[in-house]
TrEMBL record, chain A:
<feature type="domain" description="F-box">
    <location>
        <begin position="342"/>
        <end position="387"/>
    </location>
</feature>
<dbReference type="Pfam" id="PF00646">
    <property type="entry name" value="F-box"/>
</dbReference>
<dbReference type="InterPro" id="IPR001810">
    <property type="entry name" value="F-box_dom"/>
</dbReference>
<dbReference type="InterPro" id="IPR012885">
    <property type="entry name" value="F-box_Sdz-33"/>
</dbReference>
<protein>
    <recommendedName>
        <fullName>F-box domain-containing protein</fullName>
    </recommendedName>
</protein>
<dbReference type="Pfam" id="PF07735">
    <property type="entry name" value="FBA_2"/>
</dbReference>
UniProtKB/TrEMBL annotation, chain B:
<dbReference type="GO" id="GO:0006511">
    <property type="term" value="P:ubiquitin-dependent protein catabolic process"/>
</dbReference>
<dbReference type="InterPro" id="IPR001232">
    <property type="entry name" value="SKP1-like"/>
</dbReference>
<feature type="compositionally biased region" description="Basic and acidic residues">
    <location>
        <begin position="165"/>
        <end position="177"/>
    </location>
</feature>
<feature type="domain" description="SKP1 component POZ">
    <location>
        <begin position="38"/>
        <end position="96"/>
    </location>
</feature>
<comment type="pathway">
    <text>Protein modification; protein ubiquitination.</text>
</comment>
<dbReference type="InterPro" id="IPR016073">
    <property type="entry name" value="Skp1_comp_POZ"/>
</dbReference>
<dbReference type="InterPro" id="IPR011333">
    <property type="entry name" value="SKP1/BTB/POZ_sf"/>
</dbReference>
<feature type="region of interest" description="Disordered">
    <location>
        <begin position="160"/>
        <end position="188"/>
    </location>
</feature>
<feature type="region of interest" description="Disordered">
    <location>
        <begin position="1"/>
        <end position="25"/>
    </location>
</feature>
Length: 666, 188
């Protein structure tokens, strides 16, 4: 108060007062309905400073200061003498205070028409403004207010002079509006507006109009920002039930009780939360984006039992208020509180950030990397690639991150809705971030992980043919690849794969789903191959290949073909890399005659039991193939000393031919 | 613990309340140095404790200050809050001449304090303490959901980052325009 009095003394006094940084106190300046200027500091809500004019004392005794206490609140008054120019004087004081404290007016009630222009000129942007009863006498003034005054939170128009009849057809451009004489507000003004809160008293909107509002809201093209709408209307009193029927016509409403989680109050502006009427039942309307509009019409009865007005409320609910609905001040407040309670990781110097990232587990890095582009860049500082982390895509779309040399090094990114305690792996559940609804998203996730961990996928189960082209482009060199049953539907695709994918150590191909009667004569160019339903793979494809391990199921190679393979192997020009060949054939044949045909003209020695060969074959790091236990083995010796052990067997309806190449240890 | 006292850099600090010096080496009197943070509170710290900080150790190794000179020339760390510098000094004193344990549970639990501590420790190049701090930072998100991680580590969304970038560019543009106008005014 002393500062205000001092600043009013002279221009120089004002300049001195201005040098103090009062703006740091965040003083809130209000003009009250009683032509008072009120100052408040949000951090000290129990104190208020009030500047007022009155005539209780002799003119010479003004201005004077007085303090009062009431219910723990302190009010400090600065009284000026009320004369004819009191409002003008107050405007001047206001301007001085505004200049000294560098604090804009928060709330401004227009009690006289004359101050509207002053306000528009002095401070065209204001948090809350309301026009008091009967201040407006002409509709042009209202239009000029809408055009020139920017209200950031709440605008209230109380009643206007009865001679204003021009309807408001254009939207009212403020976030929260409360209109007393709302017979002026038409349906287009509501529908085309961006208002979040609409309170209409004395409305002349019909039940049909309200029905239109609801339909438009549900469509989602209009009233996107609407949070709460209340219409009080005496025009609706022609039977409450009839009104409700008309309002809800052709709408798919669901009944909801009072415990549906709907908030019981609505924030009209920073300092006013509006309590909603208590109702036992409301009706919910759901928009395609998941927003719920809760409708609860109520009515008020006159003493004589007559319905005086009907209140219609539409409350828009979401679990989290969309950010776009938030005012800048709210966002700022939220940010400020966040700064107080959080740790701004991304603001750390890079070298420190690196050390923090190094302390994170694999799945924490994945979670961080998915939060934003900047977070992903930070997550990429991880050094798990030095540990040899590998990416594995399973057939059921699970992604494993694995470190072979690290006993606990297996992490699973899985898509489930519920956690289970049985799983032995550390998991990142889909509910923790998101589901993969499509193969596209799965591809994106793999690319993402590849980028974050700088680790190629080493083991890939392809479950859709559409992934082939993506894989060829994304990672044409892959260690282990499996095409599951029916994924490949043409030999053209198979050809493309064999031409484009390089460096593969293990290639599994399930049944090719095609009616083509093709015979493949070109070798499959990979170290280890396992092919189901391999009827199409011919003898030249085997003989001319450089494969080390060949596992064929459903083969149509004849005993004679196998005899050729053995002879070629013994000659030493072909199949130089062969370590193990297994051919399963479902063609019914007697084992003895089959063996005879296979061994025809070959100089083999027969051995009983195991004469030193290994009983397992390592196909991949995870796939160790166990060989069948047999009593008799036929050994074929190549001139370089390599032994080829032949041991055909019969299992159910299948004939199994096994050929294992090994060298006796000296 | 070090002693602290309110005042300017020329004020003579009080003796430490505890004497962490080893009893085995009494012959060579230990030298002390003085540091202060933003709050100008001067902390008296032994050269042994300051060895944890590569920055300060580098600064003092060739100074050869006498006690009086050291008192008269405290090292100013105006970018470090007083309470944070106090934490750092305490840590250095507690771990003077001792092998650092694998864990340190005495780090601040409040996230904003830890952030300031990390920055200070990084600036002062106290490697072991920085390692503890970084472990603590990583521990914050153990078992947390992505949204919780976002909140704890204040990770803005891409949209928020873009908006902030736009705003920064706008501000930089305005400042540049202001500078150009001022330069033009000066030239006139």
């Amino acid at each position: 108060m002393e500062i205000i009095v001092f600043s009013l003394l002279s221009k120089r006094a004002k300049s001195i007062a201005k040098q103090i940084h009062w703006d740091l106190l965040d003083i809130r300046l209000k003009w009250s309905c009683y032509n008072q200027i009120r100052l408040k500091i949000p951090s000290d809500p129990k104190r208020e400073w009030i500047i007022e004019h009155h005539k209780r004392k002799e003119a010479s005794e003004y201005p004077y200061v007085e303090s009062k206490k009431y219910s723990g609140y302190s009010y400090h008054y600065l009284f000026f003498h009320k004369n004819q120019n009191a409002v003008e004087e107050l405007e001047q004081i206001f301007e001085t205070i505004w200049e000294v404290f560098r604090s804009p007016i928060c709330d401004f009630p227009v009690v006289e028409k004359s101050v509207i222009n002053w306000l528009i000129e002095f401070q065209p942007t204001i948090r809350c403004a309301w026009i008091c009863d009967n201040v407006l006498t002409a509709s042009e003034t209202l239009e000029s207010i809408f055009k020139s005054l920017k209200v950031t939170q709440y605008f209230r128009l109380k009643t206007v002079e009865a001679d204003i009849q021009t309807k408001i057809t254009e939207p009212i451009p403020y976030r929260s509006i409360s209109i007393g004489s709302s017979y002026l507000v038409t349906l287009p003004a509501i529908l085309n507006g961006n208002n979040s809160i609409i309170l209409l008293d004395g409305s002349e909107l019909t039940p049909m109009d309200i029905n239109t509002i609801l339909k438009e809201w549900q469509k989602g093209t209009k009233l996107r920002n609407l949070e709460f709408l209340e219409i009080k209307s005496s025009a609706l009193q022609e039977g409450f039930d009839g009104c409700v029927r008309e309002i809800s016509k052709d709408l798919n409403l669901t009944e909801s009780d009072e415990n549906d989680g709907r908030p019981r109050k609505v924030k009209i502006h920073d300092e006013w939360e509006y309590w909603l009427p208590n109702v036992n039942i409301s009706y919910n309307l759901v928009r395609s984006d998941g927003m719920i509009g809760s409708i609860f019409p109520t009515y008020r009865l006159h003493e004589d039992g007559r319905i005086t007005d009907i209140r219609f409320n539409l409350q828009n609910i979401s679990t989290r208020k969309p950010r776009k609905h938030q005012l800048l001040t709210e966002v700022k407040a939220e940010e400020e509180s966040k700064t107080k309670n959080g740790f701004p990781l991304l603001n750390l110097p890079r070298v420190v950030l690196l050390e923090c990232i190094e302390n994170l587990e694999v799945l924490e890095i994945v979670q961080l990397s998915l939060l934003s582009k900047r977070a992903k860049s930070a997550a990429k500082l991880n050094r798990w690639d030095l540990m040899g982390i590998q990416l594995i895509l399973k057939a059921d779309h699970r992604i494993y991150l694995k470190i072979p040399s690290y006993p606990m090094g297996l992490w699973n990114i899985e898509y489930r809705t519920k956690k289970t305690s049985e799983c032995p792996y550390k998991m990142l559940y889909a509910e923790a971030f998101h589901y993969f609804y499509s193969i596209e998203e799965l591809k994106q996730m793999i690319e993402h992980l590849y980028e974050v961990f700088r680790s190629p996928t080493c083991d890939f189960r392809i479950v859709e043919q559409s992934m082939v082209e993506w894989l060829i482009k994304f990672q044409p060199t892959i260690r282990y690849i499996r095409f599951l049953d029916g994924v490949i539907t043409s030999f053209e695709t198979l050809n493309r794969i064999c031409e484009s994918l390089k460096g593969t150590e293990y290639f599994y191909l399930g049944s090719v789903r095609t009616y083509e009667k093709t015979e493949v004569t070109e070798p499959i160019p990979y170290r280890a191959i396992a092919i189901d339903n391999s009827y199409w793979l011919t003898l030249p494809a085997i003989l001319n290949g450089t494969n080390s391990i060949i596992l064929l199921d459903g083969s149509e190679l004849t005993p004679k073909d196998i005899n050729t393979i053995l002879k070629e192997w013994q000659m030493g020009c072909k199949l130089r890399n062969l370590e193990y060949l297994e051919i399963k054939s479902s063609k019914l044949q007697d084992l003895q005659s089959y063996t005879n045909e296979v061994l025809k003209d070959l100089n083999v020695t027969t051995v009983v039991g195991n004469d030193g060969r290994a009983m397992t074959i390592k196909v991949t790091d995870d796939f160790i193939h166990r060989l069948p236990q047999v009593q008799i083995v036929h050994n074929l010796i190549r001139n370089d000393g390599m032994i080829g052990s032949i041991f055909p067997s019969k299992r159910k309806n299948e004939l199994l031919f096994n050929f294992q190449v090994w060298r006796r240890e000296t | 613990m070090s002693s602290t006292e309110q005042g300017t850099s020329s004020a003579a600090p009080a003796e430490p309340t505890t004497a962490p010096e080893s009893a085995a080496a009494p012959e060579v009197p230990e030298s002390f140095y003085y540091v202060h943070g933003k709050d100008k509170v001067v902390h008296k710290v032994s050269a042994g404790a300051l060895q944890h900080s590569a920055l300060i150790h580098g600064m003092i190794s060739n100074l050869g200050y006498t006690e009086e000179q050291a008192k008269a020339n405290p090292f100013p760390f105006e970018n470090i809050d007083g309470d944070i510098l106090q934490m750092v000094v305490d840590w250095c004193n507690q771990h003077k001449g001792k092998p650092t344990p694998p864990e340190d549970t005495n780090l601040p639990k409040q996230k904003e304090k830890l952030f300031d501590l990390v920055l200070a420790v990084n600036y002062l190049e106290i490697k072991e303490l920085l390692t503890y701090c970084c472990k603590q930072v990583a521990m914050m998100v153990k078992g947390k959901s992505p949204e919780e991680i976002r909140e704890i580590w204040m990770i803005p969304t891409d949209a928020e980052d873009e908006a902030a970038e736009k705003e920064a560019k706008k501000r930089a543009g305005k400042e540049a325009a202001g500078e150009t106008a001022a330069a033009a005014g000066d030239a006139k």
